[in-house]
Amino acid sequence: MPTNTKATRDPLDPFGAVRDADEARLLRLMRARLNEQLRAVMDLLGDPPDWSNLDAAFWDGQAGGMLADLRPEMERMALAATIVQITPQSIPELWNETVIFREAADWARQYAGALVRGITDNTREGVGRAVQGFVETPGRTIGQLRDELEPLFDEARAQRIAVTETTRAYAEGTRLVQEELARAGIVMEQVWNTATDELVCSICAPNNGKRKSEGWTVDSVPAHPNCRCWITLEVAK
Fold this sequence. Notes:
Blueprint: H1 16-45, H2 56-85, H3 97-136, H4 142-149, H5 155-183, E1 188-193, E2 230-235
Antiparallel strand pairs: 1-2
Helix pairs in contact: 1-2, 1-5, 2-3, 2-5, 3-5
C-alpha cells in the first residue's frame, strides 16, 4: 500500500490546520505507547526469551492502555470534523448536535475497540514469530531479537496509525453530518479530495473532486495506510 506522507496537509483542506494538530497529538500518544510496549515485551521475555511470559493478561493490559489513548481521540476528532462544517448558513433547527455527539461517541467506542484489537493481535503475532525464529536459530543474541522486533514498535508504525486514523476520524465526522442533514431532508453527497501533489497515489488521484455517485476507486476514505485525503459535502444533484 502507499506510504507517502508529508508534515502538513493541503491548504485547501478545510480541516487542515486542526487536523495537523490532531495528527501530531495522536502520533505522540502512539509513539509513547509503542515505546512502552517494546520495553515491557523485552523485560518480560527475558534472556533467553520465554514466550510464555507474555500471557493473555499481558496483551489484554496492553490493549486496554492503548484503547484509553485512542478512543477519546477518535471521538474528539470525529466531532471536530462536524464543528468545522457548521456554518452560519446551517439552519439551527435542523442541526441536532446532541445526536451527532452521541453518534460520534458510539462510533469511537466501537471502532477504536476493533482498531486496538487488530493492532494488538498483529503485534502479538509478530513477536511470537520472532521469538520462535530466535529459538530455532542457534547463536542469535537478544540484541538481534530486539532489532527484529523494532518495526512493530517504531516511529514508522506510530506515524502510519496516526495519519490513517486521523484521516478516518475526520471522514467519519463528515459522514455523521451528512446523515444528520439527511434526517432533516437535506440530501448531500460526499466529494473526495486529494492534496494534488507528487505524493498522491494512483489509488486516490482518480477520485479527486469526484462525487461518490460518480464512482470512486475504493469505497471510502482512508483508501490505504497513510492516506491524507478528505471528504467534503455538496448538495446532491
